[in-house]
Design brief:
heterodimer; A: 167 residues; alpha+beta; PH-domain like; 2 domains; 4 helices; B: 487 residues; 7-stranded antiparallel β-sheet; 6-stranded antiparallel β-sheet; 47% helix; globular
C-alpha cells in the first residue's frame, strides 16, 4: 500500500541553511588557501606591491563571500519537493532554477546519504536512481528521509511484484 | 545446450599473460639502469599473474539455462550472476587478432543497465563453431528468430559502403572541434619546421598522431566492410578489418535514434545514423553507436524506412521563440566577460614585455604586443556567433509516441526519443530565461555506454513541461508497456 501522497509541495527544515553555511565556509577556506598558496609560490615574498593577481583574488573572494551569505537563504526559499504515487518532483536553484521530475515507475534503487556535516544536524539526502541517471532530495530530516526511502522501496517492490504476477 | 556448463577457451589465459607481459616489459624498459633483482621481481609478478589467470579460468563458468544465463565466478569471493534472456539488450561477437590466431570468437552479452552499460554483463571466448551455435540459440530465445552463421556471410546490407565511403566516414564523422585542433597542430608543426624548433615539432607531431591520426585510422579499420540489415524486428551489424565485430539487437531495445551531421560532412550533404542501444560498440568505449555510415542526406530517409521505420514520424517542429535570443545573449555576455577578465593579465604582460623579445621587425613587435587582445576578440566574436547559430538551429517537436530535438552549432544532430525511455526530465531556467517564461529541457536516458543527457534550446516552459506530462500520462493510461523496455 503506497501511503506517500503529498497534496502540496513540501519545504525543507531551516537547519539546511546552517549545514550549507558550514559546507560553504569549509570551501571558502580551501579557496582562500589555494589563492594564497599560488601567490606565495609565485612571488615567495608577500611584501610585494599589490599585483593584478592580488586584485583578481580579492574580487573572487568578495564575490564568493556574497554568494555564500545569500545562497543558503535563496536555496531554502526556493527548494520544494512533492512525492505522489506517480512522480517525484523537485524544484530548486540559486542562480538557475531547476525542476526535476522522476516517474516512480522508473526507479531502480533508493539510497540515503549522510555526510559529516549533515550528520551534525541529523539531516540526510535521499538519492533515487533510475536506469539512466539519478536525482537527489537534499537536506531532509533523518526520520523523513528514512520514511521516504522506505516507502519508495516498497513502491518499487510492489511494481516489480505486479509485473511478475502479470507475467 | 540447456544447463550445460561452459568455460572460457583456454587461450584466454595466454591472451591475459601476454597483456601483462607486455605491460611489464614497457615498465622494464622505461626504468633506467634496471638490475637483475628488479627483473626477477617482474618475472615473479608474471608467474603470480599466470597462476591467478589459470585459477580464474578454472573457476569461471557460464550456463545457458532455460530462461536465463548464469555466470559463476569463484576466485577470492564467490559471485553468481543471473541474466534473464528477457533483459538482454544486445549480443555482440568480436574476433580480434588473438581470436583469429586461436580460432576463437568472443561473445559479449549486454543488458539494459546504465551501471554496466560500458562493460558487457558477460564476456566469454569460445571456439568459433560453438559461438555460432550459442548465437543461434540466443537469437531464437531473445529475438525469437532463427539464426545461421551463413546469414552473416550472405546477407545484403541496406546500403553498400565502398572503402572510399569508409575513408570519408573515418575522416569526417569525428567531431569538428577535433578536426580544428588537428589543423592548429598542423600549422604549429609547419611553423616548427620553418623556425627550426625540433622540440616543438616532435611534440606537435606526437599530439597529431595520438589525437587525430590514430583515431581516424582505427575508425577506418573498424568500419571497413560495414554491413547492416534487418530481419523481422532484429537489426544486425557487422564491420571491421582486423577485428571483426558483429552485433544483433531487437529494434524495441533502441532508446533513441540520432541523425548526426558533422560540419564538414554537412558541406558534402552527408549524415550518419546512430542508435542508443546498450552494448553497441561498448567494448570499444564508443560513444557513437553507428547504425549507418555517412551517406547522402537524400538517402537517409530510405535507410531509416528499411532499418528503423518505427522512428519515422512527422513531428511538428517548433523553432525557438524570438525572446530566446535574450537568455542566449546574456549567457554569452557572461562567458565573454569572464574570458575578458582571464585574458586581462596575459594582455597586460605581453603589452609591457613585448619590447624584450628583440624583434627586429616593427610590425612583428606590434603584432606580438596586441596578440592576446586579437585572440580575445576572435574568441568573443566566436562566442556570439555560436549563440546566434544556436538560436537559429535548435528546434523541438512533440509526437504521439516520441519527440525530437535538433541541436548543435558546428556539428548538428536530430535526436528522436521515445517517451517510454525517458528516465528523468529536468527543466532549467536562468533569471533572464525565467523573465520571458522560457526554459531548457534536459532528458536523461539510457545510452550505449551509460547515462546520456540531451538538452533542448530555450522554449516556452509550458511546451517543455509537456514532455514530463506525456511520460506520466503514458504510465497512467496504460500506453507504456514495460515488457518492451526491459529496463
Amino acid at each position: 500500500m503506497f501511503i506517500l501522497i503529498d497534496d502540496e509541495y513540501k519545504k525543507l527544515n531551516k537547519k539546511c541553511m546552517s549545514a550549507m553555511y558550514i559546507v560553504y565556509a569549509i570551501e571558502y577556506v580551501i579557496l582562500f588557501l589555494i589563492l594564497f598558496g599560488i601567490r606565495y609560490i609565485w612571488t615567495a615574498d608577500l611584501k610585494n606591491n599589490l599585483s593584478l593577481y592580488d586584485i583578481v583574488s580579492v574580487v573572487i573572494l568578495i564575490i564568493a563571500l556574497v554568494y555564500i551569505i545569500i545562497a543558503p537563504i535563496v536555496f531554502y526559499r526556493r527548494y520544494q519537493y512533492i512525492i505522489t504515487p506517480e512522480k517525484i518532483d523537485i524544484r530548486r536553484g540559486i542562480i538557475i532554477i531547476r525542476r526535476t521530475m522522476v516517474p516512480i515507475e522508473r526507479l531502480h534503487q533508493v539510497e540515503i546519504i549522510m555526510g559529516p556535516v549533515n550528520n551534525l544536524f541529523k539531516l540526510a539526502d535521499v538519492e533515487v536512481i533510475t536506469a539512466g541517471g539519478s536525482a537527489k532530495i537534499q537536506f531532509l530530516e533523518l526520520p523523513e528521509a528514512n520514511r521516504i526511502a522506505e516507502e519508495l522501496n516498497q513502491q518499487i517492490n510492489s511494481i516489480l511484484k505486479a509485473r511478475q504476477n502479470n507475467e | 545446450m540447456n544447463d550445460q556448463k561452459f568455460r572460457n577457451h583456454p587461450t584466454v589465459i595466454i591472451n591475459n599473460i601476454v597483456a601483462v607481459a607486455v605491460m611489464l616489459f614497457i615498465i622494464c624498459i622505461s626504468i633506467p639502469n634496471i638490475d637483475l633483482t628488479m627483473i626477477s621481481i617482474f618475472l615473479l609478478i608474471l608467474a603470480l599473474a599466470t597462476g591467478i589467470f589459470i585459477l580464474a579460468w578454472r573457476r569461471t563458468t557460464i550456463t545457458f539455462e532455460k530462461d536465463q544465463i548464469v555466470v559463476e565466478h569463484n576466485l577470492i569471493y564467490m559471485k553468481r550472476k543471473t541474466i534473464p534472456y528477457a533483459k538482454i539488450a544486445s549480443v555482440n561477437v568480436v574476433r580480434n587478432i588473438f581470436n583469429r590466431i586461436f580460432g576463437t570468437t568472443t561473445v559479449n552479452i549486454n543488458i539494459n543497465s546504465s551501471k554496466n552499460a560500458a562493460i558487457p554483463e558477460a564476456s566469454f571466448a569460445f571456439r568459433s563453431e560453438l559461438v555460432n551455435k550459442i548465437r543461434s540459440d540466443l537469437s531464437s530465445k531473445i529475438f525469437e528468430i532463427e539464426y545461421t552463421s551463413e546469414e552473416d556471410e550472405n546477407f545484403e546490407s541496406v546500403a553498400i559502403f565502398t572503402p572510399k565511403d569508409v575513408l570519408i566516414h573515418g575522416l569526417l564523422a569525428t567531431s569538428t572541434w577535433q578536426l580544428i585542433y588537428t589543423f592548429i597542430l598542423l600549422i604549429y608543426s609547419v611553423l616548427s619546421i620553418v623556425y627550426g624548433s625540433a622540440g616543438g615539432l616532435i611534440a606537435a607531431i606526437s599530439l597529431l598522431i595520438i589525437g587525430e591520426l590514430i583515431p581516424v585510422i582505427s575508425l577506418i579499420l573498424k568500419f571497413y566492410n560495414f554491413k547492416v540489415y534487418r530481419v523481422g524486428d532484429n537489426i544486425r551489424i557487422q564491420n571491421g578489418a582486423i577485428q571483426t565485430y558483429r552485433t544483433s539487437f531487437d529494434v524495441s531495445r533502441i532508446n533513441a535514434i540520432r541523425i548526426r551531421r558533422p560540419f564538414f560532412a554537412r558541406l558534402l550533404h552527408k549524415s550518419c545514423l546512430e542508435a542508443e542501444v546498450v552494448g553497441i560498440n561498448a567494448a570499444a568505449k564508443d560513444t557513437k553507436p553507428t547504425l549507418c555510415l555517412l551517406i547522402d542526406d537524400d538517402k537517409m530517409e530510405g535507410i531509416m524506412k528499411q532499418l528503423v521505420p518505427e522512428f519515422l514520424y512527422e513531428p511538428n517542429m517548433t523553432i525557438q521563440p524570438k525572446k530566446a535570443i535574450f537568455p542566449l545573449l546574456s549567457k554569452t555576455s557572461i562567458a565573454a566577460f569572464v574570458f575578458l577578465i582571464i585574458m586581462a593579465y596575459p594582455y597586460y604582460w605581453m603589452y609591457t614585455n613585448a619590447g624584450n623579445f628583440n624583434l627586429t621587425n616593427n610590425y612583428a613587435q606590434v603584432l606580438v604586443q596586441y596578440l592576446p587582445i586579437i585572440c580575445t576578440l576572435i574568441v568573443i566574436l566566436a562566442l556570439y556567433w555560436g549563440a546566434l547559430i544556436s538560436y537559429k538551429v535548435r528546434q523541438f517537436g512533440l509526437g504521439i509516441d516520441m519527440f525530437t530535438m535538433i541541436n548543435g552549432i558546428l556539428d548538428r544532430e536530430t535526436v528522436t526519443m521515445q517517451y517510454d525511455r525517458i528516465q528523468i526530465t529536468k527543466l532549467s531556467a536562468s533569471m533572464m530565461a525565467k523573465r520571458f517564461n522560457l526554459a531548457r529541457c534536459t532528458v536523461s536516458l539510457l545510452s550505449s555506454v551509460g547515462e546520456k543527457r540531451i538538452t533542448s534550446g530555450y522554449f516556452y516552459t509550458e511546451e517543455l513541461e509537456e514532455v514530463g506530462k506525456i511520460v506520466l500520462d503514458r504510465l497512467s493510461n496504460g500506453k507504456y508497456d514495460y515488457r518492451k523496455t526491459t529496463i
